[in-house]
Specification:
Largest interface: A-B, 93 and 91 residues
Distance between the termini of chain B: 59 Å
Radius of gyration of chain B: 23 Å
Number of helices of chain A: 10
Strand content of chain B: 35-45%
Shape of chain B: globular
Distance between the termini of chain A: 57 Å
Number of domains of chain B: 2
Shape of chain A: globular
Largest sheet of chain B: 8 strands, mixed
Strand content of chain A: 35-45%
Radius of gyration of chain A: 24 Å
Largest sheet of chain A: 11 strands, mixed
Number of domains of chain A: 2
Number of strands of chain B: 24
Oligomer: heterodimer
Number of strands of chain A: 18
Order of helices and strands of chain A: HEEEHEHEEEHEHHHEEEHEHEEEEHEE
Structural class of chain B: alpha+beta
Chain lengths: 450, 458
């Protein structure tokens, strides 16, 4: 039996045993995050590190009418050992529950039925990608990055009978190509992702990256501080979206005075009518159930034609502020966001940009002033100075400091009529589900400060 | 050759908000990382199945992927990258975590929250702790064995004040209050005065003017210095970054191998050390995960760059001198070059002397916003609490205090260094592919920089 099915068997059987051991009005929710991963790291087209990881964490939430406790612990895939752990940590959670203050915001555990989804594939393993890079990456590509591959699992079972299982065999290769020496180097970045290895996508991606890198070979131009018209490619838009999602769309953050889009939520500011953001589970990146078993609507409009329609609201926040949850998990961040396209055609990007900056990627974006929804960050990788619709040269990296109310408001000229999909490539502690579908954006008066 | 690292970690998150339970979560993690070297290449396999058969299976995987990697490696390492090590380390603490019951701890946090309840304008009061107890038990060939036990606490104390549309949050040290310490930290005597100060300063901020936009002297408090050191010294000196490993994710570095021993990084007042031996600092340890014993080393001496943050693997790949900093976030990640404790050594100036010397200046405390480019050159930081200085006197409080600059220009403008060290640390330094979060400490005095661009919000 594979590791994945051992974990599934252990989770399903031991959760039933745990539920059978509950007393009185105790209710329990068990969520599972698990992965069996191969990671291979490359530098200069050669292998830097290879790591194999099997990990499964159970998150136990126990509650009574007025108390709650949470404990997370690992599963091994060994039935007997895991049964002992489930009962051990149930006991520890009970002890904690006794000593903790009352739960001021009780929630009702979901009764959302049963589902099972198992997306099987032949994902590439370490040996495959090491050979593939050796065979297809050229010596002068200076290839750097990594592959993450293997089964990814999210599951939930609770004592109300809710049970959802979602496993997906997926991989991504996230990489950059560099040319030139440190201090004067040029670089492009890309990634390929999927379930079964797609040779055509891989070859196409490498070919496009080489072409893009070739266009960067002129000396980099130093652009003075100031405001410029810019085109943000979808990967650059993703960096803005990621930071905007950091408290910007959270109901708890809004209610606690920490929401960077508070003025938008209050109706004091609005964004461009061209802008529509949706938490869209139909993209297929993210299971619809959360860690408590609550199932979201297939689509949750967040911003519609520039106006805020919904904040991400967890059941805890809903309980505190007497609102309705929309299935958001405790972090209240969008996990599968789509930004709707506009009318700018791919062939017209340079013509419409005319004179300004073509920015393929941004880096290290952070809020610089919460009240005015101001963001700072850097340009990175393939960014160009464009004059009269022609690429003139790559640029030296620049720092920007802009308000979302400007760049997604009156400054938003158009969005592209195409969108690019990206899987979540975050691997802090563990791999994650999620992704996005985003267009590019043409923006006027984008402010650069350094 | 095979090495086995057994890592157990218990992390508890306890938070009270507005005197009520906000969060209580205990995360128990236990796993083993097996490392196997084949033909000069090391493969890593992590498992939570710590039975004999589970570890054997991990060893087989590690061997298999080590062999695969050895066909096209970045570098073929010698056995010297895993020196023989024996010994123990334990965080020196006065009082164990068991000495304070969960109920007692939550009562202290409720009192902290209550201590911030000094005005109707304080709309949110949050008091939280993160307690981390980690054991790393490493075994290698020929009886090599080390055991290191860490006790860590990070405080998260903050108050949000609101009046009309103006909202300002002040925290205790910008969330950098992390230490190796025991439950002696949870004393009301120690915490409550700080909570009252946090709330009072949040109220000051909603009444304050915006920080001006101009160039002036900048006096950086130790709880902002910690991230200035972290982003513009720590990361660019990581030798694996300089060697290019991080170029796809965290970035490269403006520092080149040939700069060591020559580059004037800052003014002659600048002395930066790598010091995992410092009592109470969050990233103290005796051995890194290669087995190299840690000792204090100067990275920058009298302003000159002399040593990199590179463990034994990076040192074999490079002629540059390094330190014992080969660390992982846990059993499920391979070690890489990390910061540990990177400190600014003290100078000769008192705080009063530095303030008196400023004709037109700004004092900044507690980081709230941070950003720097992938070569670690152009940075921008935002701080919670600013104080304007005119003709040697603090004249007013300002909100939304930001500054920006370029790394070498900034450090070369270091004009005075304080005589008193304060210690801070965080649990959350991100790096690596796959990505890792690790704890890092930074101790620093107040430091005065000349002619820095500062600006406000809006």
């Amino acid at each position: 039996m594979s590791w994945k099915y051992k974990i599934q068997e252990s989770f399903e059987k031991n959760s039933k045993i745990l539920f059978a051991n509950l007393k009185g009005d105790e209710e329990v929710s068990l969520s599972l995050d698990a992965e069996e991963s191969d990671f291979v790291r490359f530098n200069k087209g050669q292998v830097r590190q290879t790591t194999s990881v099997e990990q499964a964490q159970v998150n136990l939430v126990i509650q009574t009418q007025n108390k709650i406790a949470k404990i997370a612990f690992p599963l091994t895939g060994q039935l007997d050992e895991d049964r002992k752990r489930c009962l051990l940590y149930l006991g520890k959670a009970r002890q904690e529950m006794e000593m903790l203050p009352e739960n001021p915001y009780p929630i009702i555990l979901a009764e959302s039925g049963v589902s099972q989804k198992d997306e099987k594939a032949e994902t590439p393993n370490s040996h495959f990608i090491i050979d593939k890079v050796a065979q297809t990456v050229h010596t002068n590509d200076d290839f750097v990055g990594y592959m993450a591959s293997g089964p990814l699992i999210k599951a939930i079972a609770n004592s109300k009978g809710t049970s959802h299982w979602h496993s997906s065999d997926i991989y991504f290769v996230d990489y950059s190509l560099y040319s030139g020496k440190q201090g004067n180097a040029k670089a492009v970045t890309a990634n390929v992702a999927g379930r079964n290895w797609d040779e055509e996508s891989w070859q196409t991606s490498l070919g496009q990256s080489r072409t893009f890198l070739h266009q960067l070979q002129k000396p980099a131009k130093k652009i003075p501080r100031g405001e410029y018209k810019v085109y943000l490619a979808p990967a650059a838009v993703m960096e803005l979206k990621n930071t905007a999602s950091w408290g910007g769309f959270s109901q708890a953050a809004y209610k606690q005075g920490q929401c960077s889009l508070r003025l938008l939520a209050d109706g004091q500011m609005q964004l461009s009518e061209k802008l529509t953001l949706i938490e869209n589970f139909e993209l297929g990146f993210q299971p619809r159930f959360n860690s408590l078993g609550e199932v979201s609507e297939a689509q949750i409009p967040i911003i519609e034609n520039g106006l805020l329609k919904n904040l991400m609201t967890s059941s805890k926040t809903a309980s505190e502020f007497n609102l309705k949850s929309n299935g958001a998990d405790t972090r209240e961040t969008p996990l599968t966001m789509e930004i709707k396209p506009g009318s700018l055609k791919r062939d017209h990007i340079f013509k419409e940009l005319n004179t300004g900056l073509y920015l393929s990627n941004l880096h290290y974006v952070n809020w610089s002033d919460q009240k005015s929804a101001r963001l700072t960050g850097m340009t990175r990788f393939a960014c160009f100075w464009v004059e009269n619709g022609d690429i003139i040269s790559p640029i030296q990296d620049m720092r920007f400091d802009v308000s979302l109310y400007d760049i997604w408001g009156s400054g938003l000229i158009d969005l592209t009529d195409f969108q690019e999909t990206s899987v979540n490539i975050s691997t802090y502690n563990n791999r994650e589900f999620g992704g996005s579908k985003l267009p590019g954006m043409l923006i006027r008066d984008f402010k650069f400060t350094l | 050759m095979t090495w086995i690292h057994s890592i157990t970690e218990k992390t508890t998150y306890r938070t009270i908000r507005n005197e009520k339970l906000e969060e209580s979560l205990c995360v128990v993690d236990q796993g083993v990382r097996v490392e196997v070297m084949e033909n000069g290449f090391i493969g890593y396999a992590g498992t939570q199945d710590t039975s004999t058969s589970g570890i054997q299976r991990a060893e087989e995987k590690a061997r298999s992927i080590a062999l695969a990697g050895s066909h096209n490696p970045v570098f073929k390492f010698s056995a010297k990258v895993r020196p023989f090590a024996q010994g123990v380390y334990k965080t020196p603490i006065q009082k164990s975590f068991d000495a304070v019951s969960l109920k007692q701890l939550m009562d202290v946090l409720v009192d902290c929250s209550q201590a911030m309840n000094i005005s109707d304008k304080i709309v949110q009061r949050s008091a939280g702790v993160i307690i981390v107890e980690t054991q790393i038990h490493s075994k290698g060939p020929n009886g090599a064995e080390t055991v290191q036990d860490f006790s860590i606490v990070a405080l998260n104390i903050g108050a949000t004040a609101q009046e009309g549309s103006e909202v300002q949050t002040r925290t205790l040290n910008g969330r950098s209050a992390g230490y190796q310490i025991g439950s002696e930290l949870f004393s009301r005597h120690r915490l409550l005065p700080n909570c009252e100060t946090v709330a009072r300063q949040a109220l000051e901020l909603i009444e304050a003017e915006n920080c001006p936009h101009d160039k002036r002297d900048l006096l950086v408090g130790p709880d902002q210095m910690y991230i200035q050191i972290h982003e513009s010294i720590g990361h660019p000196l990581e030798l694996d970054r300089i060697l290019g490993d991080e170029r796809n994710f965290a970035g490269w570095s403006f520092v080149r191998e040939e700069d060591f021993g020559k580059l004037q990084y800052g003014s002659p007042l600048m002395n930066i050390t790598f010091d995992p031996t410092r009592f109470g600092e969050i990233a103290s340890y005796r051995f890194d995960e290669s087995g190299q014993e840690a000792k204090k080393e100067h990275l920058i001496k009298n302003g000159i760059l002399i040593r990199a943050l590179g463990g034994l693997e990076s040192q074999e790949r490079s002629p540059v001198s390094g330190v014992a900093n080969f660390r992982s976030s846990s059993w499920n990640r391979a070690p890489i070059d990390r910061m540990a404790n990177i400190n600014m050594e003290t100078g000769m100036s008192t705080l009063d002397d530095m303030i008196s010397s400023m004709e037109k200046g700004l004092i900044v405390h507690s980081n709230k916003s941070w950003s720097i480019d992938d070569y670690r050159d152009k940075f921008q930081f935002g701080c919670e609490y600013g104080q304007l200085v005119e003709n040697g006197k603090i004249t007013k409080i300002v909100k939304n205090s930001n500054y920006r600059g370029r790394t070498l220009d900034f450090w070369r403008n270091l004009a005075q260094v304080g005589d008193t060290l304060e210690t801070y640390g965080t649990l959350y330094c991100g790096k690596g592919e796959p990505s890792q979060i690790i704890r890092v400490g930074h101790a620093a005095p107040y430091c005065l920089f000349k002619d820095i661009e500062v600006f406000g919000g809006g």
